[in-house]
Amino acid sequence: MFKKFMSEHSFAQYKFDAQMFPTVSDRAYWDGLSNRGYVEAAESSLDFDWPIIKATDYMEFKKSGNRGIMERPHNLRRDKLTLFALAELVENKGRFLPQIVNGLFAICEESYWGLSAHWVDEIPKNIPTPVEPYIDLCAGETAERLVMIATLLREPLLDFCPEILDRVEYELEVRIKTPYLEHRDYWWMGYGKRIPNNWNPWIISNVLAVFFLTEKNERRLHRALGKVFDELQYYYDGLGEDGGCDEGPGYWGRAGASLFECVYEIKKASGGKLDLFDDEKLGRIAAYLKTVHVSKDYFASVSDSHYSALSGLMIFNFAFARETAQPELMNFCAAVYADRTSKNDPRYCKLGTIRHIFYYDEFIKDIESYEVSLPIHSGVEILPDAELAGIRSGDMLIFAKGGHNDESHNHNDIGSFALYDAQKAVLVDVGIGTYTRFTFSEYRYDMIPWVKAENHNVPAFDGITQQYGRKYYADSFSATDDEIKISFASAYPKEAGLSLLERKLSFTESGMSCLDSFVLEKGNVGRVREVLMSVMPVEVVENTAVIDGKYRISASAGRVSCEFIKFEDSSLEGTWKTEGVTRICFDAEGVDKIEIRVDNI
Hints:
- The protein is built from 21 helices and 22 strands.
- By secondary structure, the protein is α+β, with helices and mostly antiparallel strands.
- The strands form five sheets. It has an eight-stranded antiparallel beta sheet, with no helix packed on it. Strands 4-5-6-8-9 form a five-stranded antiparallel beta sheet. Strands 10-16-21-20 form a four-stranded antiparallel beta sheet.
- A hairpin with a 2-residue loop joins β1 (293-295) and β2 (298-299).
- The radius of gyration is 26 Å and the shape is globular.
- The termini are far apart.
């Protein structure tokens, strides 16, 4: 897509000088913008004392794995600076300029704009130094905030403290523009063997803002754009033709949505002339969330993505659908947004970037005025490359995955499924807890219980479960309106002795059926354990498990047992609104198939 464009066009054909965002002098915009509490909140913080990020705060991550000690003052600085800037843009009286300058100066004085967790991975030293300006996610977002503030408030800052604009320009050059142009060894760029993940469009969307708003040298801007197009192509090529996001719906906001932002920024900067949205695969990337939708504005838990409400993403997804000319997808986004669980204006939400303020304002008017038609789902929705599928019967949804065990944010969960009844999660993929040093390390599968196969809805054979690695994969994956079929013997190591493992998921008159058929090389005499996870209350009644008094789980073979596992993690407790999860097990021996049924009581 991007490389094809470069082979057929020259950036010299386009001007990238369109005004992308309204500055403080555009009073028609800012006076027409509802206050949204910016001025009142900023007033209460006028005596804010900018916190220090200490050397030991950086060192703590390497020492204990605790990210929050460094991230709290880092985030607080940026959030307060953004608040003061928005308040000044709305009020335009100069009251908040001193604190804006304080915030800009404090951040410019930092040795490193990113997070300790990201810096230690790339340059494993105790503290960062200014001579190693690695661009991580948060360095990119910091740069975006600074360039937006310097651009939108340029006139009053020139009057109040012109030197701060020079300092911001200098820091953007040495921390972002020069290293971006000079480096091809940052893993997220895509030049190495590692397939880039959401870091690629997420960072590039912010780098683009810096170049579009500051670069005066046309040839240098074109050079940057050429590199951007190369790197976005690596990300684009790493996605399946179905446009699926193996990182899960919660990460789509930093994956597919960030790719949308990159393409949209390019279109806006060129005054609408450079428009890449007619690409078919880009349209499929836009449509991903529809496949993983559960009910209202809730989406399935996939990989590290939590089961959560994502109504804010619907606004971006709607704009993506609009730009790729997909009215059915626009209808889906508008319907989900209209049926959202919270009616809070998403424009009040904490922002990662300042430009989101303008995007929300632009897109929300369209999505709220869109006339919705129902239904919004077909019987089956499948992503054949990502190997994700959902089938529906009334309010019930069976959602299942195949894939392989080296996906981005991977869990050892090939063949796993979840059962949702309207918005209720009956059988679940727990997701992931608070990120620590171990989350993305070689110790991930030793230290993080929720990524292990034993805590997913998949079987074990003689105590042997799925293992991590690209060589563990689903042999086949298919879905129709009535059934999902997954063959996944190859997800297990040889020690499991499996020559065949096939799972059929379907609805019954009173619920659902999961039929597992398997052939063991030793003649089906081994022990089989079927595992199901539920965050609802569970009790054992006559060799069945009763969930929340409403769903009875039975098996054609084996004895049932239950184990309650405490989360001991505030993130998971907040996601599931409970203190833990129950692992339901059916243990059998000497059988070649087990049918598990979930029946409404």
